[in-house]
């Protein structure tokens, strides 16, 4: 029935296939045969007729027939009418009809949704299409192909959030692996990384109940996709909470998940994250890891719990701690963790470099020594200076190492060479070829600070026995001196203490060794009894040796004591060293030593962090002092510049003013003197021109031969005075620069004045001293009454025979006229270039001081920048101490874990 309605084949139930009558004719005849007893109704016949007309593409008649249908088939008739409109391309009418259908029939509603979906797709209304297909899926997900149509649509138009939602819902609803696989595909394409992990927990819970293998695979895929993304920690929280509820997690093998838990654990404690970010995740993470690893007897998860609890006690449940400790006693020691330890050291080094810290070169070098498994390290110590020195000289050969020294010396066979292993870098003193010279220099420099040396020396004993002997400073009563070298003691494979046969195992030696064993309980301790050249008889020596062995055994039961006879016992010493160094356990012991030095590295980095803050504070204080001093120096330099500028300018002005005074005083007299050229019989018509020519000649001669020579010498003296002033200023600048260079402890300040200014002044003075040509003057060209009369007198009275009146007029003019304006005019012309030169003097003096000012101001700017950057660094260190503290603390967790993994004393440690 449903299928016939959908395919419009309901009419087939009303017609007979055995007859030859057309189906429409049969339905028409059936209408005439209807009576009250008929099972078929008029609505059935009209519905079937509509179907037939539809199949014959007579859509209008089909619509007409369906419009006449009444009763329960009306919704289906409406749907068919909409189909007919759609078939005719009448989309608007079809959509309106579909949307008008009211029915509770899920199949009909689903068909309507699918038809509307098809129309929306045709109209390219994707949002409407998405909405309608979601409604279809929600209404009737079991309807044939509806979920596949939805999935294909979402994927085609990249609506992956809807596609993921569909796949998750269908996987949970149908429990079909096909849908779980589809979710897996989306995860692999990284399409789920922005979706909250909580959304997928029901899906995973469902899959866990259906197929454990697929569950583990899908979880691993999800895990990898979220890793490194913003929601990574959300995933860890949500999944761990979900997995903690999975009761069967400890009863099955989880190879993929176990590996993922391990990788994530080490990632979380790698120093990338702060403790506050992971402390809420780690407890449940480790609990789940421990539970799923129970069947596999995993050492990593067990030691991770024990190590974390030691550094963060109280965060893990007591029950888990008890189980981990109990399990630890039955797990084997891991003997191949050396690679992990070295990787940890490299991670710490990389982290330190990234955070502007430096793993000490000395620690790096010690790590390299520990990796040389071909050489056994025997540390030689003693409280008796002579006993230790004579023993080493006998077995190694005389190395010229003094009895008293403050160095930790690695004695190796090889061509003579000395290398100092500095804290920051390797320092090789190539100029020192003799060992004795190194220690002579150390003594001369009063070098009391601890140092570490690698001394290579041709030695048959060291070569044949494959040993490296470590010579230490003498065991001192001063605890502070001992603590300079004792932290490096674990680099040795065993510790040999040399006793003076004349005074063996003194109270001081015993106390020193007891403290050492309490600090390094795992370090093998043995003794050399150096007989030396004593005054005792052979019997007395034997008695003392026996008593010494007894006392040594009482305090150090595992210690061996070798009696050494100088100059005769080298071979026996080699055998003794061979017996006290366990070659089979060497790699395991070296790994423990590497972990010790990694711990020392972290301690060193913590100290560096503290020192870094101190250095920043010191830098701020120092630079603030420098800013004050530099600004004071700038003020002083300003005063010096003003002082020198005023001195140079004033002395120059005095010369110029004197020139002006001389010119303005001499010119009127020169003009009046020219009256002697006027005679009563002079040709007064040409007299004015002759007089002007003579006056101009005399003035120019005066300027060139009197003024210029006189003041050329004055300017030369001025240049010499200026040079002395600049030299004096340069001396002051050098003194200032030397003072600052001493404060800065390097040649930071070079404050040279610009003496090229003097060269420019010399050229300018020479040019001005060469002479100045002035414009000719006309003394009769003024506006005074006398000048006006005389200007035209030659034309008016020049032809008269009696010229005495003109003569008297000219003489009166020269004697009474004020020629000072002319003199000022001439001096102004003459001194113009001197005044221009004067205007530039202040600027030139500033040029002399420009570079020193730039140096000082640049230093001020640099110091202020240093203050700002150091204050920012201090602020960061104080506001976010976890930037350094947390990673170093987490590195300690890993060290402790590796120690748990490799230690033979785990049961003791757990009970301690």
TrEMBL record:
TPR repeats (start-end): 110-143
Listed name of the protein: Uncharacterized protein
Organism of this sequence: Alkalihalobacillus alcalophilus ATCC 27647 = CGMCC 1.3604
SUPFAM superfamilies named among the record's database cross-references: P-loop containing nucleoside triphosphate hydrolases (SSF52540), TPR-like (SSF48452)
Transmembrane segments: none
Positions in coiled-coil regions: 411-438, 623-650
Keywords linked to the UniProt accession: Coiled coil, TPR repeat
């Amino acid at each position: 029935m449903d299928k016939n309605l959908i395919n419009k084949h309901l009419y087939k139930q009303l017609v007979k296939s055995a007859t030859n009558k057309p189906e429409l004719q049969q339905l028409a005849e059936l209408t005439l045969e209807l009576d009250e007893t008929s099972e078929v109704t008029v609505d059935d016949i009209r519905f079937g007729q509509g179907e037939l007309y539809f199949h014959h593409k007579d859509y209008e008649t089909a619509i007409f027939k369906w419009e006449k249908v009444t009763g329960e088939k009306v919704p289906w008739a409406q749907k068919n009418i909409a189909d007919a409109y759609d078939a005719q391309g009448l989309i608007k009418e079809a959509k309106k009809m579909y949307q008008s259908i009211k029915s509770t029939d899920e199949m009909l509603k689903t068909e309507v949704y699918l038809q509307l979906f098809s129309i929306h797709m045709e109209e390219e209304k994707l949002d409407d299409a998405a909405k309608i297909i979601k409604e279809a899926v929600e209404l009737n997900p079991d309807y044939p192909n509806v979920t596949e149509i939805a999935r294909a649509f979402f994927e085609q138009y990249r609506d992956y959030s809807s596609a993921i939602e569909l796949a998750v819902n269908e996987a949970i609803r149908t429990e079909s692996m096909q849908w779980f696989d589809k979710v897996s595909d989306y995860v692999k394409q990284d399409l789920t990384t922005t979706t909250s992990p909580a959304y997928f927990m029901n899906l995973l819970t469902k899959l866990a109940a259906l197929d454990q293998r697929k569950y583990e695979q899908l979880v691993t895929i999800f895990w990898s996709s979220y890793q490194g993304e913003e929601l990574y920690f959300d995933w860890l929280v949500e999944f761990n909470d979900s997995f903690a509820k999975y009761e069967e997690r400890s009863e099955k093998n989880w190879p993929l998940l176990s590996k993922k838990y391990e990788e994530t654990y080490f990632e979380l404690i790698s120093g990338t994250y702060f403790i506050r970010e992971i402390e809420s995740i780690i407890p449940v993470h480790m609990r789940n890891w421990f539970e799923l690893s129970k069947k596999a007897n995993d050492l990593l998860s067990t030691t991770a719990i024990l190590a974390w609890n030691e550094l963060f006690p109280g965060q893990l449940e007591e029950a888990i701690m008890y189980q981990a400790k109990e399990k630890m006693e039955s797990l084997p020691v891991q003997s191949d963790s050396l690679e992990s330890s070295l990787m940890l050291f490299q991670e710490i080094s990389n982290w330190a470099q990234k955070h502007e810290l430096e793993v000490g070169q000395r620690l790096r070098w010690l790590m390299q020594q520990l990796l040389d498994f071909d050489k056994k390290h025997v540390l030689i110590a003693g409280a008796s200076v002579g006993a230790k020195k004579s023993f080493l000289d006998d077995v190694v050969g005389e190395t010229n190492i003094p009895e008293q020294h403050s160095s930790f010396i690695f004695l190796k066979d090889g061509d003579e060479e000395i290398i100092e292993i500095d804290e920051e870098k390797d320092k090789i003193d190539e100029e020192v070829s003799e060992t004795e010279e190194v220690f002579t220099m150390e003594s001369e420099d009063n070098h009391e600070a601890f140092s570490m040396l690698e001394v290579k020396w041709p030695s048959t004993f060291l070569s044949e026995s494959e040993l490296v002997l470590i010579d230490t400073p003498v065991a001192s009563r001063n605890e502070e001196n001992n603590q300079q070298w004792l932290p490096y003691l674990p680099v040795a494979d065993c510790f040999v203490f040399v006793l003076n046969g004349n005074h063996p195992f003194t109270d001081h030696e015993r106390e020193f060794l007891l403290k050492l064993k309490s600090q390094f309980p795992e370090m093998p301790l043995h003794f050399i009894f150096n007989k030396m050249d004593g005054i005792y008889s052979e019997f007395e020596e034997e008695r003392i040796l026996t008593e010494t062995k007894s006392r040594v055994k009482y305090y150090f039961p595992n210690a061996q004591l070798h009696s050494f006879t100088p100059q005769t016992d080298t071979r026996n010493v080699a055998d003794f060293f061979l017996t006290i160094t366990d070659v089979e356990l060497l790699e395991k012991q070296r790994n423990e030593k590497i972990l010790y030095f990694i711990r020392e590295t972290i301690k060193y980095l913590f100290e560096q962090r503290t020192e870094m803050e101190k250095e920043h504070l010191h830098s701020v204080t120092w630079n603030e002092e420098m800013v004050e001093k530099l600004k004071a120096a700038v003020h002083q330099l300003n005063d010096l510049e003003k002082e020198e500028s005023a001195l140079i300018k004033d002395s120059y002005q005095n010369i110029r003013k004197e020139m002006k005074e001389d010119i303005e005083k001499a010119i009127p007299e020169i003009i009046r003197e020219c009256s002697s050229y006027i005679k009563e019989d002079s040709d007064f018509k040409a007299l004015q021109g002759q007089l002007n020519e003579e006056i101009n000649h005399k003035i120019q001669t005066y300027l060139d031969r009197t003024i210029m020579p006189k003041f050329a010498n004055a300017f030369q003296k001025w240049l010499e005075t200026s040079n002395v002033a600049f030299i004096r200023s340069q001396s002051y600048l050098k003194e200032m620069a030397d003072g600052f260079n001493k404060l800065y402890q390097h040649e930071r300040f070079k404050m040279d004045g610009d003496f090229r200014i003097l060269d420019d002044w010399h050229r300018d003075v020479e040019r001005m001293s060469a002479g100045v040509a002035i414009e000719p003057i006309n003394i009769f060209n003024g506006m005074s009454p006398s000048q006006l009369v005389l200007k035209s007198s030659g034309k008016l009275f020049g032809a008269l025979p009696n010229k005495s009146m003109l003569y008297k007029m000219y003489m009166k003019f020269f004697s009474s006229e004020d020629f000072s304006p002319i003199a000022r005019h001439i001096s102004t012309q003459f001194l113009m270039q001197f005044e221009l030169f004067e205007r530039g003097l202040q600027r030139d003096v500033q040029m002399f001081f420009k570079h020193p000012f730039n140096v000082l101001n640049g230093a001020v700017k640099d110091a202020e920048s240093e203050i700002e950057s150091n204050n920012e660094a201090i602020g960061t260190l104080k506001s976010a101490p976890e930037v350094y503290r947390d990673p170093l603390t987490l590195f300690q967790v890993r060290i402790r874990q590796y120690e748990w993994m490799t230690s033979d004393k785990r049961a003791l440690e757990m009970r301690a």
